[in-house]
C-alpha cells in the first residue's frame, strides 16, 4: 500500500511542522514579527541555493542562512530607525538573490516549484525524522524559556526588573524560527511558511483567554488545516502546500465568525 | 541599607546626553520621587537603575540580592495576546491560586481572575500592575508615572497606598512623576531632575528651592499644603502607625 504510505508520511510531516509552528507562530503574532517569518523563509531559499552550489547538506545550511538573516534583522529592529524599509530590502533581496542563485544550477538538481510551494507528498522517512526531531527541539526550548519569553513579550522593562534579558529571549525565538523555517521548507515551501506561522494563531485567538490555551488551540487548528488541506489536495488534485494554507485561512474565517470577537 | 548607588552616572541616548553626572542613593524604607519637565531624563534615570540602559561613564551599583518590583506606566498588550488577570499575576513566576486570590483581594480586585487585562479600567490596571510587582516581595519598588490617567483624589489615594506598602514592607520606593503637587507630599525625598540633578531634599525644601521654581514656577506650594492637610485629616493616626510597624 504505497499510496497510503506517502499520504501517512505527508500527514506526519505536516503535523510535525504544526507542533513547532504553534508556539512560535503565537509569539510571531504577539510580538508583531510576521515580517520576520517572511524574511527568514526567504533566507532559506538562499540557503538551499548556497548548499547546492557548495555541495553541502541542505538542511544545516538552510538553518544557518535563515539564522544569519534573522540575526541581521534582529539587529536592524533593535536599532529602530526605519526598520520597516530595511527589513523589506533584506527580505525581498534574499528572495531575489536566492532565486537568481538557484537559476544557475542545472534544473535537474533543484525543483523551483517545490522550493517555493513545498513538496509534502514526496516526504521521505529520513525527512520525517528531521522534521519531528527538530520540532521537538523547538518545543522543548520554548517550554524551557516559556515564562521568561512571555514576560519579555509583555513588557521589556518589566522583564529586566525581574532579571530577564529581553534581548536574549529574542535570540531564543529567532533560533527557533530559523529551525522551524528549515523544517517547514519541504512541507509548505518558502512562500507559505510565514502563512503557517500567522494563520493558525490568528484563528485560535478568539477561542482562548490565556497564552497557553491559545497555543493549544493553534496546534489543534493547525493540525486540522494540514489534514483538511491534504484531503482537499487529494480529492481536487490541487497543490498540497497552498491547499493547507487555504484550509487554514478558511478556519480563520470560521472561528472569527462563530466565536465572539475578543 | 543602601540598595542602589549611582555615582557620577552619564547616559547618552544616541548622540544626545540625557543624564549628566547624576549621583544618588536609594535606601530601604524611603520614598523617593523624581520630578522634572518632559525630556528631563526621568524615564532614562529609571531605566538606568533597572539596567536597561548602560552608562557611558560613572557607576551603577546594586545590592547583590536586590529584588526590583517594576510598575510600568502603562501596559500595551497586543490584542492578539490573550491575558487574563490571574495569568498576568503569574509572570514571571508562577503563583498559586491562593496567592493570586489574596493579591487580588489586597488590590481591591477580588473575583476578577478571569477578566482580560485589556478590559480593566485605568485605576484597576494600575492596582493590578502594583499587585504583580509586590508578589515578588521587592526590596525596591519602581513606579513610572503611576498616576497617569487618574484624577487628583485617585492619585492621592494611590500615593497613600504606596505609603502604606512602604510602612508594612519596609521596601524602598522610587517614583517618577510630573504630578508635582500630590506626589511631593507623599515623598520622603524629592529629586528635581533636568538632565542633571537641579536640587534634592525634603519636599518642602525642594519646593522652595530657586532651581525648582525656575523649572515649575511657584504655584505648587498651595496644593502641597492642601494635600498635607487632607492627608493628616483622613489618616489621623498616621504617625502613630509608623511607630507600631517599626
Automatic annotation (TrEMBL), chain B:
Pfam families reported for this sequence: ABC_tran
SUPFAM superfamilies the record matches: P-loop containing nucleoside triphosphate hydrolases
InterPro entries recorded: AAA+_ATPase, ABC_transporter-like_ATP-bd, ABC_transporter-like_CS, Metal_Ion_Import_ABC, P-loop_NTPase
GO terms classed as biological process: response to zinc ion; zinc ion transport
Gene Ontology molecular functions: ATP binding; ATP hydrolysis activity
Domain ABC transporter: 4-219
Keywords of this entry: ATP-binding, Cell membrane, Ion transport, Membrane, Nucleotide-binding, Translocase, Transport, Zinc, Zinc transport
Coiled coil: none
Name recorded for this polypeptide: Metal ABC transporter ATP-binding protein
The organism's taxonomic lineage, starting at the top: Bacteria, Pseudomonadati, Pseudomonadota, Alphaproteobacteria, Rhodobacterales
